[in-house]
Design a protein that fits this description.
The complex is a heterotrimer of chains A (359), B (123) and C (557).
Chain A lengths: L10 H4 L10 H8 L25 H36 L1 H8 L4 H27 L2 H32 L17 H6 L1 H14 L15 H6 L8 H7 L4 H13 L2 H9 L19 H34 L9 H25 L3
Chain B lengths: L12 E3 L2 E3 L2 H21 L8 H21 L7 H38 L6
Antiparallel strand pairs in B: 1-2
Helix pairs in contact in B: 1-2
Chain C lengths: L26 H5 L4 H29 L12 H37 L7 H23 L13 H4 L4 H28 L12 H33 L12 H35 L6 H14 L15 H29 L8 H24 L1 H7 L3 H31 L5 H27 L14 H27 L47 E4 L4 E4 L3
Antiparallel strand pairs in C: 1-2
Chain lengths: 359, 123, 557
């Protein structure tokens, strides 16, 4: 059904006119109906069914579209700029929350998603080539792979989000992590000694206090009002009062003094203990840790919205491609969609190291 | 299918309205991108000093972004205005960022004081 | 349906059928049109309606300030806060930003360029539909308990107040995209749709101004979009980036906000420069003085405009270092602006000045904009600003620029292009009287506010000391004078729409391309694609007045 390969640049052939699949006429007419009073046809554009009335040549139309999409991409760059700026400000001033929080993220998932997006970028770029050469079947295949990759990306993202909801590593007031830093596998494998030390300190710090309740239980305001003391997990505030005898603090500090710098460093960097051992009365959570998750969810969420928009665009392109509309004289839409898709990829290329790979 | 009849297109050449990127180049770029992804993950297990890791990660990300922009996005063969525009966008972003970050550094002390006075409490 | 003969369209006579106003009938032919002129007309009337609404709030504010304390029955201090918020938000986002570019620009830009349409007619229509959507959200805020944050939405108040901040912020967010689409469309149009012979330096200065504006629209607007989105998310979910109660940084919001909103000031004023640059040479019958300087100074203003946002934040907790840098760059902006003013005055020098309505507005612009601009320099000095910040001095300053600059130029442009857009001459006498009343009202309203401000009257206050009453009452009288002037002007313009087409193709003796096609233009703008052989302001000597058609025609050799 396709004879889209004509290397002669005969337009009628490459636009699928010679062997139009069923329903092929409809979009063409739409393009011509551009001028509502029927001017479209009368301008000698008949040989280029996709040429709008106010352009002189397919080249002019293609260049205009291309400049348009690039301007849109500049706009996108600055749209994301605000979030990157917020990220940088907090990272510059509160580095500990980033170190602390990145242990809660799964690098493998992030890396998989990076690769998935890169592959989809390849197929998108390849699709442009297919469209330019009128290779209809390959074009459909490449677009389909791109869409598939986008869904895989969103699936992985969904798993990550679900995990975070479960773990309570959310934004603002919803930040109530199920596990403390030293209880996380990612921290334990990277800094086993630090984790061990932290566990020892925690044992002293929470001695005699009721075991930490399940997160769900003290979400209601009633439970909170009843027993604020039963919430040692809310670390910074719990320790501020430190009604316990000084002995606890002394035992903790002696543990810290015995530890090596290498053991202490990961804990200090993550804001779990203070840099000054004498000022340290126990383990705490960096005060603004929730801001990281606010930024994380906002950035990845907005990026995710762009992925969803990309899927919609690609599905539309798939429909057009199946109808065999693209060829050497009309491949602009595929090119523009691919450019947009690459930008979505570019944003992720930066998000991945900034969110997942913090040292 | 009809595709098989297509003549070899692997040589870069201008095809109609815009440049056509050869397949071998596209695949090479993907391989390079995947390589840099592995590299950037691997590098995190080394301690490169205070901001060293961040700098390396950003350099690698920028190389990757450069590859995508130059080849996948056809900037290598495209009108120069598009590249200039992108550079201008990034430049304004950097200006914005550096001014704000520098300024925030100056008034951070006020934020800290406020934080000590009114610490964040879980609801 | 209109038939088009693309072949010979001999004389630029208005035709009853082959013009864009009449070639199709019915409301849908307007709402779904892809014609840039029709979209421009829809924008124009939407903007004017918004202007009436925003103006009503302004009059309510001024009436409330007639006496200290409660004046109008039923208007509480809280309602007063909502009034000035709505006045500001409507005037900025719904009136001034789209006013010249989207309304006048859409009608005129392709005509001046010699193009058949803008590059993306569908995007153009979408930009209008998006504008309507944004306006609906703004009105929704009005219904749901109008926001009382001021148009700036500063945190932390905007995250705390009980009023409907989210619809208003979302409305502004949506309107931002309308503005981006318009800007994007104009840039591509100017790059790609210039006809043969239309080189960059043969483009009319209005086109140059719109180009510079469009650059700002595309590069700055996304930042306000993300900022407002962050504000909405902050309010809904409490993510803690801006909210100090969550450890966030409210000054960061101000940085974000002004990174857009200062360039936005240039979105409002640079197109006005373009309009003035069109009117002055035509009504002086003299080519513009220093064409390239005016053209490029627009671009310079656009670029410099990105680097001065911090001068809104001298007293906000921003560091002194940043303040100094911003203050210095702010002074720099005065240079390209002054270049323009000098060139306009030099253009008039030894010209044959015709004092028709558009020229009256242009002269008024020169007067009020200079006052507005120079007082801006006072405010750019950090030490002075500490005293004047958030006083009526600032209010007077930006009203002299926004109202005196943008709106005056908008009205000038509206009168100038009205015959072209609608094919009818407005009533010249009413136009002139209107211009005079507007000019007097403007100065009467805002000049006393300079004095009030420098004496320490803070802005946005419901109440004031008795000693300020005289000046406040003067200002209120001025505001109602201004309102009267607008009503008269609106009557003068709108009443002409009942007439038959009577406008000649070139009523003013102008040389730019839009005057070489019929009034109103045919659907396709030009019968044959124009070819440009000279600069936009060359050839006044080759035009002569024809008594019969009451317009200018080329001199017969």
């Amino acid at each position: 059904m396709t004879d889209t390969t004509s290397e002669t640049q005969s337009n009628s052939e490459t636009n699928g006119h010679s062997a139009p699949p069923p329903g092929d006429h409809e979009p063409h007419e739409k393009a011509e109906a551009h001028a509502p009073n029927g001017h479209g046809g009368g301008h000698g554009h008949g040989q280029y069914p996709h040429l709008a009335h106010h352009f002189d040549s397919p080249q002019q139309q293609f260049d205009a579209g291309k400049l348009g999409i690039w301007l849109f991409l500049f706009q996108e760059v600055l749209f994301f700029a605000g979030l990157f700026c917020a990220y940088t400000v907090y990272r510059a001033q509160n580095p500990e929350i980033f170190v602390y929080a990145h242990y809660h993220l799964d690098t493998t998932m992030g890396a998989i998603n990076t690769c998935v997006l890169l592959v989809s970028s390849l197929t998108a770029a390849w699709a442009v080539r297919n469209a330019q050469l009128g290779e209809k079947n390959k074009l459909v295949l490449n677009i389909s792979i791109t869409i598939l990759c986008a869904f895989v990306f969103l699936g992985v993202k969904y798993k990550e989000y679900a995990h975070k909801v479960h773990e309570g590593t959310l934004w603002g007031h919803h930040f109530n992590p199920e596990h403390e830093l030293w209880e996380l596998d990612s921290f334990k494998t990277k800094h086993p000694e630090s984790a061990e030390l932290a566990e020892k300190i925690a044992a002293i710090q929470f001695e005699g206090l009721p075991k930490r309740e399940h997160r769900g239980e003290h979400e209601g305001s009633g439970a909170e009002a009843k027993a604020p003391a039963a919430k040692p997990a809310a670390l910074p505030t719990a320790m501020a009062g430190a009604t316990d005898s000084d002995t606890k603090v002394r035992r903790i500090q002696s543990l810290l003094f015995q530890a090596s710098d290498e053991t202490l460093h990961p804990l200090v960097a993550a804001g779990i203990i203070k840099h000054d051992i004498l000022a340290t009365t126990g383990l705490e959570r960096p005060a603004k840790a929730h801001i990281f998750f606010g930024i994380y969810f906002f950035m990845t969420g907005l990026h995710g919205v762009h992925v969803v928009a990309g899927i919609i665009v690609w599905v539309w392109m798939l429909v057009k491609a199946k109808r065999g509309q693209f060829g050497p004289n009309y491949f602009g839409p595929i090119d523009y969609a691919a450019l947009y898709w690459h930008l979505v990829d570019l944003v992720w290329i930066y998000l991945f190291p900034l969110l997942y790979l913090i040292h | 299918m009809a595709d098989s009849k297509a003549p070899p297109h692997d040589a870069p050449h201008d095809h109609g309205l815009a440049h056509t990127t050869p397949v071998w180049l596209l695949i090479t770029i993907l391989l390079a991108l995947l390589f840099f992804t592995v590299l950037t993950v691997a590098v995190t297990s080394f301690d490169l000093g205070a901001q060293g890791n961040l700098v390396v990660a950003m350099v690698i990300a920028t190389i990757k972004a450069g590859l995508v922009a130059t080849f996948f996005m056809h900037l290598a063969w495209d009108k120069r205005f598009h590249a200039i525009g992108l550079a201008a966008g990034v430049l304004f972003f950097i200006l914005f960022l550096s001014m704000v970050v520098a300024d925030r550094g100056e008034y951070q002390i006020d934020i800290d004081r406020h934080g000590e006075k009114y610490p964040f409490k879980m609801k | 349906m209109a038939t088009t003969t693309t072949t010979d369209f001999v004389s630029p006579e208005p035709s009853t059928t082959d013009n864009y106003l009449h070639n199709e009938k019915g409301i849908l032919s307007w709402l779904l049109t892809l014609d840039h002129k029709r979209i421009g007309v829809m924008y124009l009337f939407s903007v004017l309606a918004s202007f009436a609404l925003g103006g009503t709030f302004a009059l309510l504010i001024r009436a409330e300030l007639w006496t200290p304390g409660p004046t109008l029955p039923g208007v509480t201090a809280d309602m007063y806060n909502q009034f000035f918020t709505l006045h500001g938000a409507i005037m900025v986002f719904l009136v001034i930003i789209p006013g010249i570019p989207a309304a006048l620009g859409n009608i005129i830009l392709p005509l001046q360029l010699g193009a058949k349409d803008v590059a993306f007619p569908r995007l153009n229509l979408m930009s209008y539909h998006v504008w309507i959507l944004g306006a609906c959200f703004m009105l929704l805020s009005l219904v749901l308990g109008a926001a009382d944050t001021g148009w700036t939405f500063y945190t932390p108040y905007s995250t705390m107040t009980e009023t409907a901040v989210i619809p208003a912020a979302f409305g502004a967010f949506v309107l931002g995209f309308s503005s981006i689409f318009t800007g994007l469309n104009f840039i591509v149009t100017i790059h790609k749709l210039r006809p043969k012979g239309m080189t960059w330096f043969r483009m009319p200065l209005f086109v140059w101004a719109l180009y510079s504006t469009a650059l700002i629209q595309v590069l700055a607007t996304p930042v306000i979009a993300i900022t407002l989105l962050m504000l909405i998310v902050e309010r809904t979910f409490g993510i803690g980036i801006f909210d100090p109660a969550l450890g966030g940084d409210p000054v960061l919001f101000e940085h974000f906000f002004w990174f857009y909103s200062h360039p936005a000031v240039y979105i409002m004023i640079v197109p006005a420069f373009g309009v003035i640059s069109e009117i002055i040479p035509v009504f002086s019958r003299k080519p513009i003085f220093g064409y390239k300087f005016i053209a490029l100074s627009s671009v310079a203003i656009a670029i410099l405009g990105f680097l001065v946002w911090g001068h809104h934040m001298f007293t906000s907790g921003q560091s002194v270092l940043a303040g100094t840098i911003f203050s210095a760059i702010t002074f720099l902006i005065a240079i390209p602006t002054a270049i323009k003013t000098f060139n306009w005055i030099s253009t008039m020098y030894k010209g044959r000045i015709h004092l028709e309505t558009p020229m009256l507005y242009a002269l008024a612009f020169l007067w009020v904009f200079t006052i507005g601009g120079v007082t801006g320099m006072f405010l750019a000095v950090m030490s002075v600003d500490v005293h004047l910040h958030d006083t009526y001095f600032v209010v007077a300053h930006f009203h002299y620029v926004m109202m005196g600059g943008s709106i005056t130029a908008f009205l000038g442009g509206l009168h100038y292009w009205w015959p072209k857009a609608f094919g009818r001459m407005y009533n010249e006498k009413i136009g002139r009287i209107g211009a005079l009343i507007v000019f007097v009202g403007l100065n009467l309203t805002f000049f006393p506010q300079f004095i009030l401000g420098s004496r320490g009257m803070p802005r946005r206050y419901y109440n004031y000391l008795v000693e300020f009453q005289g000046l406040h009452q003067l200002s209120t009288i001025g505001a109602f004078t201004l309102g009267l002037g607008f009503l008269l002007t609106a009557y003068g313009l709108l009443s002409s729409l009942r007439k038959k087409f009577d406008a000649p193709a070139n009523p003013w003796g102008a040389t730019t391309l839009e005057w070489q096609t019929a009034s109103p233009p045919p659907y396709y703008n030009f019968a044959t694609p124009p070819e440009v052989t000279q600069g936009p302001y060359d050839g006044y000597e080759n035009l002569e007045y024809d008594e019969k058609i009451r317009g200018y025609v080329p001199t017969k050799a």
